[in-house]
cyclic-guanylate-specific phosphodiesterase
Amino acid sequence: YAKKNKLEQQIYNQQIDGNTLDRLQLINELKSAIDNEELVLFYQPKLDLKLKKVTHVEALVRWRHPDRGMIPPDDFIPIAEQMGQMNALTRWVMNESIDQYLKWKSQGIELCIAINISAENLKDVHFCRYVLDLITEKGVPIEVLTLEITEDAVVSDPENAIKQLKVLKNSGLKLSIDDYGTGYSSLAQLKQLPVSELKIDKSFVQNLMVSADDQIIVSSTLQLAHNLGLSVVAEGIEDEGALNWLIERGCEMGQGYYLSRPLDAEKIADWLANSPY
Ligand code: C2E
Ligand code: CA
Ligand code: CA
Ligand code: CA
């Protein structure tokens, strides 16, 4: 028995070493992924539930790895964060998505773009300046961009983060709190952030039709947010029931697999042409 245990331990150790090696390799490769043009953006429609029209898309990054295939962001964003690569990554995402905005515009498609930013971006004192300069340089109206920020991006250095966010907000950029409900901050604390939009995390929306608790959480969040003058986006809408439930309760925007999965840029035009929105 002891022998078998030892063998298991050896196999286990090998697996750990294997994973560590794998991870180290990924870290090294990530550094050149941008230069090698291996990153790609997918776009997921954000539906305006009042206008019944897609006005925005959220840019979501993927890594098209030459050997490993498509790597989802949850598998490499945390590594990029630890490696100090997020400033480079976010800058790439912004450049790429503004170029895509312009490309769509030249095809007669008007879609504002939401971009995810991380804690590291807000710690970079040049972040604000970079964003504003980029918008000027590309010649796009500032309302074209929404920045989605999770509360953990703010908590580690709230003073500096709030300072940067205020400059961006005052310049006309739209700011949104992402994954609302999964962190530890209260809405009262989050209200100190200069944001105009709140995204209810998909974990409260996915099972809306079968969970009385989720219904209570979402409807009270809607009320509270509206009373505070925030507009609300529900993410993770996976069925028609949830969509209608949210429309009936005055939720401003919706996003989720029921409407559309994230699509590559070319497919967005087809999707728009064939959807009722
Ligand atoms: P997120 O910002 O909360 O994005 C929403 C995630 O939920 C996306 O996963 C999207 O594909 C997925 N989703 C959308 N609708 C549904 C639905 O109806 N059901 C379910 N189950 N899932 C849905 P994705 O693309 O894998 O991105 C995961 C996370 O990676 C994002 O979560 C975001 O935190 C991060 N991320 C993605 N792109 C970027 C980026 O460019 N920069 C940064 N900093 N983070 C990014
Ligand atoms: Ca997001
Ligand atoms: Ca989210
Ligand atoms: Ca998330």
About this structure: The first strand starts at residue 39 and ends at 48.
